Amino acid sequence: MIHIDYFDYRHVCRPFRRAARGKDNEMIRFGLLGCGRIAKRHSDLLGGNHIAGARLVAVCDSEQARADALAAKFGVPAHYDIDDMLARKDIDVVVVLTPSGLHPQHAIACARAGKHGVVEKPMALRLQDADDMIRACDEAGVKLFVVKQNRFN
Are strands 54-60 and 2-3 parallel, antiparallel or unpaired? Predict the structure, then answer.
């Protein structure tokens, strides 16, 4: 697990870029899981081409209207079921932006699908859930990033 003190996608992308060196496609492709309020910041950064080498490729929310609105804004496909989005081969990293109590379930599903994860804070509501998330990522050989903004600098 990698913990970052302030959220900056350049930090998230750095380990993936090292792994991608020498490959044909060094673009890191992101999917957003959850299209609520916090998704605006993430989608603006990833979908607005503000991060070199990072691209938003899909969004997912169980509320179709929210997924459709965000998908239309950035010209990416909308999904309404996590399994449908996780089945995509063109997603490297899933950003988990769902309600806090669902973070463990969703992060573990992402890891089992072979996707790296970026999880909004809090990582989990119980220590056991956080441990389960870390274990699932370790077993799958994927990275887990936890967002913690540093707001006063």
Answer: unpaired
Cα separation of 108 and 17, whole Å? 23
Task: Please list, in sequence order, all residues whose beta carbon lies within 8 angstroms of the beta carbon of residue 31, skipping any fewer than 6 positions away.
Answer: 56, 57, 58, 59, 60, 85, 88, 91, 93, 94, 95, 115
Per mean pLDDT, which range of 116-125, 127-136, 143-152 is the poorest?
Answer: 143-152
What SS3 state is found at 19?
helix
* pLDDT over 80 (residue 153): no
Residue type, 111: A
The pLDDT-based confidence of 13 (bands split at 50, 70, 90) is low
Q: Bin 16: left if φ > 0, else alpha if -120 < ψ < 50, else beta.
A: alpha
Burial of 105 (0-12, 13-18, 19+ CB in 10 A): middle
What is the predicted pLDDT for the residue at 9?
A: 64
Q: What is the CA radius of gyration of the chain?
A: 14
- Residue 34 CB-half CA count within 13 A: 21
pLDDT digits (tens, 9 = 90+) for 88-114: 999 999 999 999 999 999 999 999 999
